[in-house]
Design goal:
The complex is a heterodimer of chains A (649) and B (286). With 649 residues, chain A is α/β, with parallel strands linked by helices. Helix content of chain A is 33%, strand content 17%. Chain A has a 7-stranded mixed sheet. Chain A has a 6-stranded mixed sheet with strand order 21-23-22-27-20-24. A 5-stranded parallel sheet of chain A has the order 7-6-5-9-10. In chain A, strand 25 and strand 26 form a beta hairpin. The longest helix of chain A is centred in the middle third of the chain and has 15 residues. With 286 residues, chain B is α+β, with helices and mostly antiparallel strands. Chain B is built from 7 helices and 12 strands. A 5-stranded mixed sheet of chain B has the order 2-1-5-3-4, with helices on both faces. In chain B, strands 10-11-12 form a 3-stranded antiparallel sheet. Chain B has a two-stranded antiparallel ribbon with strand order 6-9. The longest helix of chain B is centred in the middle third of the chain and has 17 residues. Chain B is globular. Chain B starts with 11 loop residues before the first strand and ends in a 9-residue tail after the last helix. In chain B, 43% of the residues are buried. The chains are: A alpha/beta (649), B alpha+beta (286). The interface between A and B is large, with 74 and 58 residues.
């Protein structure tokens, strides 16, 4: 590693939108417009596409905005086609958790991880992606907890682990099943809990039976002894926490992966108690809240099922409209419907799917097919460049009042600290303005608290959270059905009740089978590419590109030293990276935390290296999340050009 | 099994503080009791999120029956003890501590230092100009932090925050011994070649401004830093889903500094590089 100098190409820095923009004809330029003109055009576009309208809500905006956005879709446009970028990350966690426990939130709290005995970080580099959560993990480790890291890469999280299980990408289910089998065979499972609180154990026992330590070791690449050690540590612990991130969810079978992990918690009774639980670490400030607020196609606010007639009736009488008694389209399905022409207008608030979707080339083609794309954002993102109308919004986290909900289900107050630039307006005001133009004169909210109180009236889990109480307690975790009391910090304590009525619905084991990544490696594409985050950058880089991080070094394709030697490439040398879908040129970085045959890239610098041209849009059939974590690529030296543009010798 | 194992409630204990009986929970320090009673005891090396290091001795109090003065920040309250915070002995001791510090270190950006020096009648000049410890230029080797060791009182709070108490990055340590002891990163090189991850948690705890944000440093240098004109608003970080609380310090509609409430259950006052510095995108207004 000789050439470690930084490249001077900084990331693209975005400037705030200050005025509405409209486009007079497809393919023409965007031009500044008045609010009145822009809103009228947006309203006309939506009016013309009634019945073929989709809403992309924003996982970075407030709960209040998400509530109003989904209400706009359901009440004004009469559709359940509303979703957000939770689809590209943690939708499988929500789907898996709600299938088992009836609720899509992580079951424990950050504080509990400081008071637990065993912590498993599975497919999660929290040290980089969730640094302050990881401080709670470090407190736990300092308090005596043993931590195990399960990750194809030996990440900076794994550096703190008692044991690192470096499995091959996409073999999480065999590993989980082998752990389950070992626990059962050694008699370490929690019989009382399994018998009382779960269902499907016998089927599960049969399911995992073939996954002996040896068999799993062959498929996963993890030594049998390491699997055995984790199984015993997890099962014997008095309390244990199982945490995961996108390494589990961003697969074509993400929901199955989540179920396979939850099975281990059910088997050992590590759920529903203080210090024992399952915890998906969410990727955006309000991706939990967006779903809680009903900005997803299958739930109404308060995570209440659309198919439940009683629930629907409550909302119908409150909102004064009929709600379609069926699930709407997911973000993924909406993109497919653009191609078939079933979806002709999209209202995209604060999302950048042109760059965040897997197979971004295809995503952009589909966006271009729309009759009407309205983008509401703080920047002219790549997605906004496709729009017919661009509406300048406020930055939710520092220019508006409201709340967001974090990974431990804590609803916290967001407050206005600075004034927005130019004519930028708050999301809720803009949505209400459009609703009024579409015939809903009554759409007016005095402030965010009014929105919140409407939501509280409809969602029992949020009823006890007045703004005053949120202020007093520095945030409150849901459920909070009572105005006086606070609930325990963990969910599903009911599973430990002896009385079957109090216990309620048993938690089912997930009968899920191993299914390797769709994009297979072969002689032509011999390297497994996986993606992730770096410490100082975030998603498509629109937010994080603007500050002068001394750690930032732009996009690289990271290889292990053995592969770098095999391909005869050195740090900084530019190579062509090709998958079955696309091809990009990126400089090489050598990282000894990788293993032969495994490469790593991020999606932080899409204007420099568009990694998502390589990723595959193989979607989880249950949650719709794409397999960002497993593409097959090949690496070729680029002839003639060195990193600095000079000719090679 | 569904009940949360709560720690047993802490009993109250009673002792005498400046001739007045006070009651504090078991495990409270004398400093906790002083603050609860509204007494103004100066502190420098004490951090509300850190284990006391007892480095500066500016908070000393007199405990009846004890041979030496006790640091209020780390001495636990005991039932029946008699404590005096404002005796001739404590005042004299604090005066000398302030004189020793202010003669060797630049305390110009230490909150309340000037007030304490005046209040305790300290005369830092009495040791002469030779007492100055370092006399070096501030180190500016990146766009986020400035290290001005002339302002460092060697309280070790940054070492603890970067080390095993919070961040566990271990980029900062003490180098040298005795008079040569100083805070440094490995090989005393530039920050950019150290293990630093730019979380800013050392700056959050630094009591003197020896470690500061470059924005604040630059604004102080050009005279535009005006704390009186700043508002502080606590909101939630817009990066990952952890939900860290950010206190935005705003001057003329520009975010100039980001901190986090020390009593916040999510952060305990700590942030990462994105939360601490990643705000610039909202104010790229032209």
């Amino acid at each position: 590693m000789t050439n470690t100098r930084k490249r001077d190409r900084g990331p693209k820095s975005y400037t705030r939108l200050t005025h509405p923009l409209v486009r007079d004809e497809k393919g023409g330029p965007l031009r500044p417009a008045s609010w009145d003109e822009a809103l009228e055009r947006a309203a006309a576009g939506f009016r013309a596409a009634r019945g073929a309208f989709g809403m992309f809500s924003c996982a970075r905006a407030t709960n209040e905005m998400n509530y109003v956005a989904q209400k706009f879709a359901r009440v004004v446009m009469g559709t359940n086609d509303v979703d957000s970028c939770n689809r590209t990350c943690h939708a499988p966690s929500v789907a898996g958790l709600s299938a088992v426990f009836g609720s899509g939130g992580g079951t424990s709290s950050y504080e509990e991880i400081e008071h637990t005995d065993v912590i498993v970080m599975w497919g999660s580099n929290a040290r980089f992606a969730h640094p302050i959560f990881f401080q709670h993990v470090l407190k736990g480790i300092r308090n005596g907890a043993r931590m195990y890291a399960v990750d194809p890469r030996r990440t900076s999280t794994a550096e703190w682990a008692e044991g690192w299980l470096g499995l091959d990408v996409g073999t999480d289910i065999p590993l989980a099943h082998a752990i389950g089998r070992e626990i059962i065979h050694e008699g370490l499972y929690n019989r009382a809990f399994v018998e009382r609180a779960t269902s499907g154990f016998e089927e599960y026992r049969a399911l995992v039976e073939p996954w002996t330590l040896t068999a799993a070791s062959k498929v996963t690449g993890v030594p049998a002894a390491a699997i055995r050690e984790l199984a015993h540590a997890f099962a014997r612990a008095e309390r244990a926490q199982l945490c995961w991130t996108l390494g589990i969810t961003e697969h074509h079978n993400g929901t199955d992966n989540v179920r396979a992990l939850i099975n281990l918690a059910l088997l050992t009774g590590h759920v529903g108690r203080y210090g024992s639980g399952v915890q998906p670490l969410r990727g955006q400030n309000n991706v939990q809240g967006g779903g809680d607020m009903g900005a997803i196609p299958n739930r109404l606010p308060g995570f209440q099922d659309i198919l439940d007639a009683e629930v629907r009736e409550k909302f119908e009488s409150f909102w004064g409209v009929d709600i379609q008694p069926r699930y709407g389209r997911t973000l993924t399905e909406m993109f497919e419907a653009m191609e078939s022409g079933e979806l002709r207008a999209v209202y995209c608030i604060g999302e950048n799917p042109a760059q965040s979707e897997a197979d971004s080339g295809q995503a952009m083609e589909r966006l271009a097919m729309l009759d009407c794309l309205v983008v509401q954002d703080i920047f002219l993102t790549r997605t906004a460049e496709f729009a017919d109308v661009v509406l300048p919004a406020t930055a939710a986290w520092c220019e508006t009042e409201g709340t967001t909900t974090n990974s431990e289900r804590r609803v916290q107050r967001v407050r206005r600290a600075v004034l927005p630039p130019g004519e930028a307006r708050e999301d809720i005001d803009i949505i209400c303005e459009l609703a009024r133009r579409l015939g809903h004169e009554e759409w007016k909210y005095a402030d965010s608290e009014t929105v919140w109180n409407e939501l509280r009236a409809l969602s029992p889990d949020h009823w006890g959270m007045t703004y005053d109480r949120l202020e007093e307690h520095q945030g409150i975790q849901w459920p909070c059905p009572d105005l006086e009391r606070l609930e325990p910090s963990f969910l599903h304590g009911r599973l430990w009740e002896r009385d079957p009525h109090l216990l309620g619905r048993r938690a089912p084991f997930g009968i899920v089978r191993h299914d390797p990544p769709v994009d297979l490696t072969d002689e032509e594409y011999p390297i497994r590419l996986t993606t992730g985050r770096r410490l100082d950058s975030y998603n498509t880089g629109v937010q994080s590109g603007s500050f002068a991080s001394p750690l930032r070094r732009g996009e690289f394709v990271e290889l292990c030293p053995e592969d770098a030697e095999r391909y005869g490439v050195a740090v900084g040398q530019r190579v062509r990276v090709t998958s079955r879908r696309g091809s990009v040129v990126a400089p090489v970085w050598v990282d000894p935390a990788l293993r032969p045959g495994l490469a790593f890239m991020t999606m932080h610098f899409p204007d420099e290296v568009d990694t998502n041209q390589l990723t595959i849009e193989a979607n989880c059939p249950i949650a719709g999340t794409a397999e960002f974590k497993a593409s097959a690529i090949r690496i070729e030296r680029v002839a003639g050009v060195a990193d600095d543009g000079s000719a090679l010798r | 099994m569904t009940t949360v194992p709560l720690a047993p409630p802490r009993r109250l204990l009673e002792f005498t503080l400046d001739d007045t009986p006070v009651r504090v929970p078991e495990g409270a320090t004398i400093l906790d009791a002083c603050r609860a009673a509204g007494k103004d005891v100066p502190t420098l090396c004490h951090g509300d999120t850190l284990t006391p290091k007892n480095a500066c001795r500016v908070c000393v109090v007199e405990v009846e029956g004890a041979r030496t003065l006790a640091p209020a920040c780390s001495r636990l309250a005991e039932p029946g003890m008699v404590v005096r915070t404002d005796t001739e002995r404590t005042r004299h001791s604090r005066k000398v501590v302030l004189e020793l510090l202010a003669s060797s270190v630049d305390l110009s950006t230490t909150p309340r230092a000037a007030e304490w020096i005046k209040g305790y009648g300290a005369e830092p000049d009495r040791f002469g100009p030779e007492a100055r410890r370092l006399g070096e230029e501030p180190r500016v080797d990146n766009d986020l932090y400035v290290r001005d060791y002339d302002k460092c009182i060697l309280c070790y709070k940054c070492v603890d925050a970067c080390g095993d108490q919070w961040q566990n990055s271990f980029a900062i340590s003490v180098t040298g011994r005795g008079f040569d002891a100083r805070i440094a990163v490995e090989h005393d090189g530039p920050l950019t070649e150290s293990a630093c991850v730019y979380c800013g948690n050392c700056i959050e705890v630094c009591p003197t401004g020896a470690l500061s944000f470059k924005r604040e440093f630059d604004m102080r240098a050009d005279g535009s830093w005006d704390e009186e004109a700043q508002t502080e608003t606590t909101t939630v970080c817009a990066y990952c889903g952890v939900g860290c609380n950010l206190t935005l310090h705003v001057q003329d509609n520009e975010i100039v500094k980001v901190t986090s409430p020390h009593d916040n259950p999510v952060t305990h006052g700590n942030l990462c590089i994105k939360g601490r510095f990643g705000f610039q995108h909202v104010q790229n207004r032209v």
